[in-house]
Design goal:
- There is one protein chain.
- It contains 1 helix and 9 strands, in the order E-E-E-E-E-E-E-H-E-E.
- By secondary structure, it is mainly beta.
- The chain has a single domain, classed as TolB, C-terminal domain (Neuraminidase), CATH 2.120.10.30.
- The radius of gyration is 15 Å and the shape is globular.
Length: about 120
């Protein structure tokens, strides 16, 4: 379960519970929040990152049990980054703009750092 607090330490709410269904957690290891207040949670048991909006609705799941590139192996930390977009924009289809990066570290395996990106259709 994720416990949410205000910046002054006041308890606000909880999110999720123990379990093996979408929106639940078994081995919660890391958490991050983007500028839109989406919440990124790292679960080492399911080897994924679940992304929730500020209303606690599950939006997407990143990673999964390792089978190849893009999957995770015992993930531990997630970081949302807005500062290094120029290094990665060249890997994005020209029809899209990169809005932010999501770095996820794994504790084991051949891909210790996975980089995901949030894109939006390029406006003219």
């Amino acid at each position: 379960m994720v416990k949410m607090y205000s910046t002054d330490g006041t308890f606000l709410d909880t999110m999720g519970s123990m379990g093996d269904r979408p929106g639940q957690f078994t081995k919660l290891k890391g958490i991050a929040v983007d500028e839109e207040e989406n919440i990124f949670t790292v679960d080492a048991a399911f080897e994924n990152v679940q992304v929730f909006n500020k209303d606690k609705k599950l939006l997407i799941v990143l990673g999964g049990h390792y089978k190849g590139a893009g999957d995770l192996m015992i993930p531990a930390k997630v970081i949302v980054d807005y500062d290094n977009l120029s290094y990665f924009q060249k890997y994005v289809d020209p029809a899209f703009d990169l809005k932010y990066l999501v770095f996820v570290t794994s504790q084991y395996g051949p891909d210790l750092i996975n980089v995901y990106g949030r894109v939006e259709t390029r406006t003219k």
